[in-house]
From TrEMBL:
One Pfam family linked to the record: NUDIX
Residue span, Nudix hydrolase domain: 2-127
UniProt catalytic activity: 8-oxo-dGTP + H2O = 8-oxo-dGMP + diphosphate + H(+)
UniProt protein name: 8-oxo-dGTP diphosphatase
Superkingdom, taxonomy of origin: Bacteria
PROSITE patterns per the UniProt record, alphabetical: NUDIX
Native organism: Ligilactobacillus agilis DSM 20509
EC number from the UniProt entry: 3.6.1.55
Keyword match Hydrolase: yes
Any one biological process term the GO annotation gives: DNA repair
Length: 140
């Protein structure tokens, strides 16, 4: 089975979480996810995340701590190992290239979305967090 290493960003602002819906024509189309993508050879996960957000939204981000441990899910096309990191925007262009929809939600609402299956542990973890208390290195 093919292993696919993926990073996602839990982008937060004013206590809200940004969630994105995958375009219909992609693998796992129309499911909600954390924006991000595959880790490429030689990249640190945090570097992949910054590159993906630049590609997908044309935005710069700051990457913080992991939301929870890496979750693995066996899809028919391979096993995705997904790690989600807290992040925040430095710019906000939001060019929608890979997504059909984005919205800001309260953490508790994360439990109601139709997520890509690998995302469910991270979504559940975030649903219990007061996002206003999430700190980034530069805040210390
Ligand atoms: N970006 C992202 N991908 C996820 C999440 N959850 C999840 O199972 N995946 C899967 C979907 C894809 O198989 C893989 C990430 O690849 P990707 O986002 O680059 O999407 P893709 O395969 O459609 O694009 P490509 O690089 O092949 O062009 O991980 C998530 O929260 N974010």
């Amino acid at each position: 089975m093919k292993n696919i290493y993926v990073v996602g960003a839990a982008l937060i602002e004013d206590g809200k979480l940004l969630v994105t819906k995958r375009n219909s024509d992609r693998i796992l189309g129309d499911l909600w996810e954390f924006p991000g993508g595959k880790i490429e050879q030689g990249e640190l996960p945090q570097e992949s995340l910054k590159r993906e957000l630049k590609e997908e939204f044309n935005d710069e981000i700051i990457v913080g701590d992991k939301v929870t441990e890496t979750a693995s899910y066996e899809y028919e096309f391979g096993t995705v190992h997904l790690t989600v990191y807290y992040a925040k925007f430095l710019s906000k262009n939001f060019d929608l290239i890979a997504h059909s929809k984005v919205k800001w939600i309260d953490p508790a609402e994360a439990l109601d979305l139709n997520w890509a299956p690998a995302d469910i542990p991270a979504a559940q973890a975030i649903s219990k967090v007061n996002l206003r208390e999430v700190r980034f290195d530069e805040d210390h």
